[in-house]
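Support case: user asked for a sample of complex input and structure output to validate their parser. Sending the pair below.
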Amino acid sequence: MRIVEKAQLMSAPEIDRTLQRLAHQIVEKSGGTKHLALIGIRRRGVPLAQRISQAMRGIDGVDVPVGTLDITLYRDDLSKVAPQAVLQSSDITFGVDGMDLVLVDDVLYTGRTIRAAMNGLFDLGRPQRVSLCVLIDRGHREMPIEAQFVGRTVQTSETEIIEVRLREIDNEERVVLVDRQEP
Amino acid sequence: MTYRFRDLLALEPLSADELTFLLDQSRPFQAIQRNPLKKLATLRGKTVALAFFENSTRTRISFGTAASRLGADTMNLQAESSSVKKGESLLDTVHTLNAMKPDCLVMRHAASGAADFVARHLDIPVINAGDGTHEHPSQGLLDALTIRDRKGSLRNLHVTILGDIAHSRVARSNIHLLSKFGCRFTLCGPAMWVPRELESIGPPGASIRRVFRIEEALEDADVVLVLRVQTERLHEPALPATDYILLYQLSAERLRLAKSDAIILHPGPMNRGVEITPEVADGPQSCVLEQVTNGIAVRMALLFLLLVGGSEEEAHPAAEMQEPGERPSTDAKKDPSHASR
């Protein structure tokens, strides 16, 4: 099987502008940042959440706390496959009770990651509200889950993969659409 | 880098990288001990058989709690009230347990090598929860996790072990683990409990020395592991408890000979006033309660690592992860690492 890059969906400046817009939308929709906190889903949701928080500092002048969540223990396929990625610690240092939480991830696909993330969150307490922010929504949902804040919606086929490459993790900054082709 | 383990029977055959992996994988479970809601559904539907052919309270409760916090069920066998008393053989007992279809067997036995023997006859993962005077791997791991948390690293520490080392599987598991990180050991106790053979149980080049004066043993120590004095053994070659206390008890005054930031470990249960004074046991250098909490985290990590995943053929079709390199179905896998098998 070959992995072929089909198109670039976002450049580095486009990613930046999109995150700025998402930060504005979240602040506007939340009516303030007092109880607001962002939860980045490992791995690429984490730098995205940190950048959105930084953008919010420019808007409201306040620090919106960022937590990180590893969803491995909450996956629904662990009886079938062992996780390939090393289990990481979640790091949420603030209490989630009564908070207005925004989950942040790079790509929304089947929705199973988000279901797992919500299970993880509710082990920590009872947030007032949980919403979802993603850079890319690529469709093909298998769960009744939608994002309130979407960077871009992209039509994809099941064989395609969207790769979000971020400088913090991948040493480059762009979003590409790749396809798996049988030789 | 991730490793797969089939069983956990001993720490001796594991590499420093594998041990580091096991300790790192315990960290997320340490955080879960602080959650208001500690119960996960990760191993829901799995059953862990706890077979303790030798008495145990804390290890059995710790493994049971670890299983239940992961969402697994447990079945309990205690030698006291079981068919073992009626003369059933070890193999018959574990085959009977296995026929009830547990997904993992945690076992303790008074005979060294018992867990290894059983693992060769069962198709489910086996965790050794202590076999005779051989090893107690989960205790070795929880001790190392506690040391690493307090000291920042396991590298090149001076570890002093006090007490009945000859009969101690805890001491052996600690030596096998810590020696892979360059730690050096001073073993100290009455001569009959610290035989010369102990100097050669580590890997080649490991620094293990025996001394018979506690003052000398404590000098320059980073970690002091105090073993329980089994008072029933004190009578054997005529060493009254009062003599042991006089010669080998860890007191605050003696502890001052160790490094000022030395930490104290004890696998429990403690005999306060025999091997350790209450002042030291409850002092700021004592880690005994952290060891207990870490024990659950380590055992959760072990159960998680041995029990998740199905057969290799059942690759998962729906890959939620976006990176092709992280896809369960396509990622190249490191050779399974079988602990001592």
